[in-house]
Amino acid sequence: MWAYQLTFFTPVHFGLEGIGQERVEQMVRSDTLWAALVQKLLLLYDDEPEGLCREPGFTVSSGFPVIGGCRYFPVPIGSFDRIMDVVAHMDTGQLPFDLKDLKKIRFLSEPLFRKVSAGSELILADITEESVFPPPARLQAVEKETQIFLKVAQRPRVAVDQICGGVREGAFFYCTDQFFDNNSGLFFLASFDNQEIRKRFEVALRLLGDSGLGADRSIGRGCFSFTAAPFEFQSPDTTAAYVLLSLYHPTRQEIERGVLVGEQSAYSLARRSGHAGSHGAHQFRRADCWMLAEGSLLPFAPEGQIPLVLERSAYIPHNVYRCGKAFCLPMAEGGNP
After folding, report:
1. Within-domain flag for 299
2. Fewer CB within 10 A of the terminal residue: the chain, N end or C end?
3. Any idea what DSSP says for residue 93?
4. Are the CB atoms for 88 and 52 separated by under 8 Å?
5. Domain presence at residue 151
6. Could you tell me if 129 and 135 are in contact, meaning their C-beta atoms sit under 8 angstroms apart?
7. Would 232 be classed as within a structural domain?
């Protein structure tokens, strides 16, 4: 297993579905990252799209925050249940932070994530400004500026008519740019079938860094450099559940086996939609796809699948797929989940 840290040297735009381009998210989903890498592999090695999409030889997690050099992982569902129960029964004057702020926490620092994965129970003292993101408002130091992960700025844009070169009537809109702070960025984990695939993967990742990740790549957004290092994670003696670090689309066999209804199952859903990203099919909208989101807990280590979301036709040169392969880590018994 390898960890790849991305350092962005241009603004980025990781958009969310909506009417305009104002809404953005603070991470890159695994299916987006996978699709971008597959496109670069096809460009570099001229592989057959169908075979590469069905058997890419690698699995990636979603891209999570790196803040001040510290990696942050998604909160496993249920990790704060007991802390919430404690806070809910405290007097108002004794509350260390608001309960609603605790519900807004999306990421745990790597040391705290490893503690939860090892089966340790979280306590109030574990919730600090550095250990969670975003931190509860009351924990943010007054005398110093809080560590900023990224800043956003909105810029006005217009749509230009490609025939006459003029501005389209009513085509004024805003687009949100995201700027990463110093010593901050994103990281993701990846596993490979063999070393040759890893070498090709890193070549494609380098090309992706030069061409950009996310939206507005044609105007220089999303360029990055990366560093790679082995990622060590100790498997517990007794595994109680597996926490998802990627989007996951279960197979029929996994559903029949009880991946969604097991005693340890706890999950949230994410709807994935939009247009195809390949050059020959980018004008076509792909089928919507519901997946289990990062931080979900599953009773066993699933494999997942890569569903077909846009079928080949006279106007579409190849099938379009969306990656729902699971990337998960084991969690020991005894933790909050």
Report:
1. yes
2. N
3. G
4. no
5. no
6. yes
7. no
Residue 322 within any structural domain of the chain: yes
238 within 8 A of 333, measured Cβ to Cβ:
yes
B/e letters for 218-235, b = 16+ CB within 10 Å, e = fewer, are eeebbbbebeeeebeeee
Per the prediction, the chain carries an average pLDDT of 83
Instruction: Give buried/exposed letters for 167-189 (b at 16+ CB in 10 A, else e).
Output: eeeeeeeebbbbebeeebbbbbb
User: Would you write out the chain's pLDDT as a tens digit for each of its 337 residues?
Assistant: 999 999 988 888 776 665 445 567 788 999 999 989 998 998 898 777 788 888 889 999 999 999 988 999 999 998 888 888 887 777 766 777 777 888 888 999 999 999 999 888 888 888 888 888 888 876 665 434 445 677 777 777 777 776 776 666 666 667 777 888 888 889 999 999 999 999 999 999 999 999 888 777 777 788 999 999 999 988 887 888 999 999 999 999 999 999 998 888 899 998 887 766 666 666 666 777 899 999 999 999 999 999 888 777 677 666 788 889 999 999 987 655 4
If you search the block for the tokens 């740019």, which residue do you land on?
A: 177
Q: How far is CA 134 from the centre of its chain?
A: 16
Distance CA 155, CA 13 (A): 12
Q: What is the reported pTM?
A: 0.85
The domain of 336 spans 238-337
CA distances from 194 to 190, 227, 303 (A): 12, 19, 18
Cβ neighbours for 322, distance < 8 A, ≥ 6 positions apart? 31, 35, 249, 272, 286, 289, 306, 307, 309
As a whole number of Å, the end-to-end CA separation of the chain is: 25
Number of compact structural domains in the chain: 1
Could you count the other beta carbons within 10 Å of the beta carbon of residue 307? 15
